[in-house]
Amino acid sequence: MLEQEKVKEEDPVFLEDPSELKESFDSSSSSLAPERKASWQTIGLLIIGDVVGTGILALGNAYRLLGLIPSIILTLFFCPVNVYCGVLMQEIFIYAPDSRSYPMMAKNAFGSKI
After folding, report:
1. What contacts 114, CB < 8 A, 6 or more positions away?
2. Percentage helix, strand, coil, to 5, in the chain?
3. How far apart are CA 99 and CA 106, in angstroms?
4. pLDDT tens digits for 60-94?
């Protein structure tokens, strides 16, 4: 019993009455989620870092298997292809902002008969 009282004193989230929980969710001044502070540039860099970070691990072996010159040529070829795909996805998102996934983008771009 003594330990439970100690937890009550130390933990501000501990509630004796469950109705207090509803009041804490209803009040607009207290939010459980932290304020979002990341800009779109930061999010873009995080996504690029995530994609490049995992892909860079396989590049060494791919370059070794294919050879240096063909690998560089293919890398330079696929760079604009990836940029073009990103531009297409951006245009679909501008056209239909409710697109939140690849299937939704395809449905908005090509219709529901796919």
Report:
1. 106, 107
2. 70, 0, 30
3. 9
4. 898 999 999 999 999 999 999 989 988 988 888 88
